[in-house]
C-alpha cells in the first residue's frame, strides 16, 4: 500500500509539473488565470461523471463529507490554482513556483501544531533537505523585494494547498472514492468561478479552438488524473509524506521546460533537483512512519489488555 501511494503521488506530481507548460501557452491566445481555473475544472466534470457511471457508484455523499469537500475543494483546486496562476503575472515563474513548493513545510507545521502529529526524525530531515533544495530554484536575477504582491500570492497558494492536503487526510475524505471526490470538487469550483465572474467579468468564454484544446489537456492532467492520483497517494500515505513526494513536481517542470520549450536548465536547478531527490530517498528508506508506530503501539496495548 505504501508503494502504491508513493507511485500515485509521484505520478500526480509529474502531471502537475508538465501541465503548466501547456497552460502558459493559452495566455498568448487570450486566456488568463480565471479562465484557465474555470475550464480546468469544468472540462473534468463530464470525464469524472462517466467514470462514476462505469463504476456504478452512487452519487450521494454524507452531509459532513459534502461540507468538507466544498471547503477544502475551493481552497485546494480553486483558490490555490487562481492565486498561483495570478502570481506568475507579478514575479517570475521560478520564484512563484519556489514559494508555492514550500507547502510541504506548511503541511508539516499544520499537522504538528493543530493535530499534534509526531513527525519523526526521517520526516524532519527530509523536510529540511527538501526546503534547501527548493531554494535552488529561486531566480537570483529576479527583484523579489519589488514583487510583494506576487510573493504573497505564491506563498498563499502554498498555504491553501497545504490546508487542502491536511483536510483530505484528517477529515476522512481520503476514505471516499477519489473519482467521486474529484467530481464534486470540480463541480464546486466551476460554479464558484462562475459566481466570481459575475462582478469581475474576467472569464473569457470565446477562446480559440486551440486554446480550448490546451485547456482540456490541462484539465485532463490536473483536475482529472492529477487530483485523483494525489488523493490515492494521501489515502495510502499521510499528508506530510505525500506532500514531500509532491516535490517531484518542480523537478519535472524544469526538465519538461528544458526538453520541450528549450528553456535554460542551469547548474543551480540541477543541484536543486538532486537535493530534492535526496530528500525523497531519505523518506523512502524510513522503515516505518509515525502513524505506523502509533498503530503498532495500539495493537500491542490491546493484546496486553486481552
Automatic annotation (TrEMBL):
Q: Does the keyword Protein biosynthesis apply?
A: no
- What residue stretches are annotated with the EamA domain? 4-137, 149-284
- Report any Pfam family annotated for this entry: EamA
What main location does UniProt list? membrane
- Mark the transmembrane ranges: 39-57, 69-91, 97-115, 122-138, 144-167, 179-199, 211-230, 242-261, 267-286
Q: Which family does it belong to?
A: Belongs to the EamA transporter family.
Taking the record's annotation, the residue ranges forming a coiled coil are: none
Is the Transmembrane helix keyword given for this protein?
Answer: yes
* Keywords for the protein's UniProt record, in alphabetical order: Membrane, Transmembrane, Transmembrane helix
**Can you name this protein?**
DMT family transporter
Write out the GO cellular component annotations: membrane
The organism's place on the tree of life at top rank: Bacteria
- Name where it's found: Endomembrane system
Membrane-topology annotation of the record: Multi-pass membrane protein
Amino acid at each position: 500500500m505504501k508503494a502504491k501511494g508513493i507511485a500515485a503521488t509521484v505520478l500526480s506530481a509529474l502531471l502537475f509539473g508538465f501541465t503548466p507548460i501547456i497552460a502558459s501557452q493559452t495566455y498568448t491566445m487570450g486566456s488568463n488565470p480565471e479562465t484557465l481555473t474555470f475550464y480546468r475544472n469544468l472540462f473534468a466534470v463530464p470525464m469524472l461523471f462517466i467514470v462514476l457511471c462505469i463504476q456504478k457508484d452512487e452519487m450521494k455523499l454524507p452531509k459532513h463529507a459534502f461540507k468538507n469537500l466544498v471547503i477544502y475543494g475551493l481552497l485546494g483546486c480553486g483558490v490555490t490554482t487562481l492565486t498561483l496562476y495570478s502570481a506568475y503575472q507579478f514575479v517570475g515563474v521560478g520564484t512563484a513556483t519556489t514559494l508555492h513548493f514550500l507547502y510541504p513545510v506548511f503541511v508539516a507545521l499544520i499537522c504538528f501544531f493543530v493535530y499534534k502529529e509526531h513527525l519523526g526524525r526521517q520526516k524532519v530531515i527530509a523536510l529540511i533537505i527538501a526546503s534547501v533544495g527548493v531554494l535552488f530554484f529561486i531566480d537570483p536575477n529576479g527583484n523579489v523585494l519589488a514583487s510583494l504582491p506576487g510573493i504573497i500570492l505564491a506563498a498563499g497558494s502554498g498555504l491553501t494547498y497545504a490546508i487542502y492536503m491536511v483536510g483530505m487526510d484528517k477529515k476522512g475524505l481520503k476514505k471516499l472514492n477519489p473519482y467521486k471526490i474529484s467530481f464534486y470538487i470540480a463541480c464546486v469550483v466551476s460554479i464558484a468561478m462562475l459566481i466570481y465572474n459575475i462582478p469581475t467579468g474576467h472569464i473569457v468564454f470565446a477562446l480559440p479552438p486551440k486554446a480550448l484544446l490546451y485547456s482540456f489537456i490541462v484539465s485532463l492532467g490536473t483536475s482529472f488524473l492529477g487530483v485523483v492520483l494525489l488523493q490515492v497517494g494521501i489515502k495510502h500515505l499521510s499528508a506530510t509524506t505525500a506532500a514531500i513526494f509532491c516535490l517531484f513536481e518542480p523537478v519535472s517542470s524544469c526538465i519538461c521546460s528544458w526538453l520541450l520549450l528549450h528553456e535554460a536548465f542551469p547548474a543551480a536547478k540541477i543541484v536543486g533537483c538532486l537535493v530534492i531527490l535526496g530528500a525523497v530517498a531519505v523518506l523512502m528508506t524510513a522503515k516505518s512512519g509515525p502513524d505506523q508506530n502509533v498503530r503498532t503501539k495500539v495493537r500491542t496495548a490491546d493484546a496486553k489488555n486481552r
